[in-house]
Amino acid sequence: MARLLKVYFHDACFDGTTSAALFAAFYRQVVDPQVVIEPIGMTHKDGNPFDNVALDADDHACVDFRFCADTRMRWWFDHHPTAFQPASLRAVFEREHLPTWFFDPRAPSCAGLIARALAGGDWGWRPPEYLADAVVWADKIDAAQFRSAEEAIALAVPAQRLAAWLAHGRSPGETARYVEWLSHASLAEVEARPELRRELAEVEAERARELEAVRRLGVWHGDVIVFDRFGEPGARSPGFLGYLLFPTCLYAVSATRTSSSIKISVGVNPWTAAVRRHDMGELCARYGGGGHAVVGGVTLRAEELDRARDTLARLVRELASS
Ligand SMILES: [Mn+2]
To answer: Residues 214, 223: contact at Cβ < 8 Å?
Structure first.
């Protein structure tokens, strides 16, 4: 009977899916050509995301997602500074020291980290030619290395169209199927699949509607642009669209909610010449959230709408003051 490999990956994320496809291609080429691979998308949540995960296959891998403190998770690749939660798991990583666990918080993407890690040491593996482009795009998308907001939101090439498709609320089944396709073919070949034609056209049409909605939504508070979507549950954060439509802003703040949670995101315009006055992570931490210097967020429970509105008003007031 064929052996089974389960690959856990950061779901609905361009880097997460590319990492899973890349690792699947490696495993088939180097470890076991006959292996059956089951890709499983993982999402962040309060508590341990591996709580109800059965490590019952013949081998297990986790890519672009936080550390699982179980040596049955034999392969692990991640680049998130927040990979060890709680932080005490770092001790397990250091103690067990598996040669098949790789962590580099400076890596722009996990796919790039996998390519580099498996090129070195005992493996000497080179990604197949058809995945080279995907690895380059994972670095670019995950680290937001774009020259302009126009470039960041463009849907000009397969990588960006597929990244937008992934971000449009895909189901775990859809992303698993996508990973399987990408483990055998290039982004251009996957993007051209007839199964995706209608959905990719929808992504483009929705982008046009979204631009209009975000244009109407923005409200200025000094040099802070605010997108309050508390009134439209399920609506997404404008992300880079906000900087495209309001290029003179220093900060963008967006407020969104779903049936399960409320999210306030704050960011520094990556394409402004102005100098930021605040640290986003430090600011958000004071309201129960966190993040980095240039991007941060506060996540609240769905029933905390009053608190969320108050937090939004306070954050905006602080950011707008000099
Ligand atoms: Mn990543």
So the answer is: no
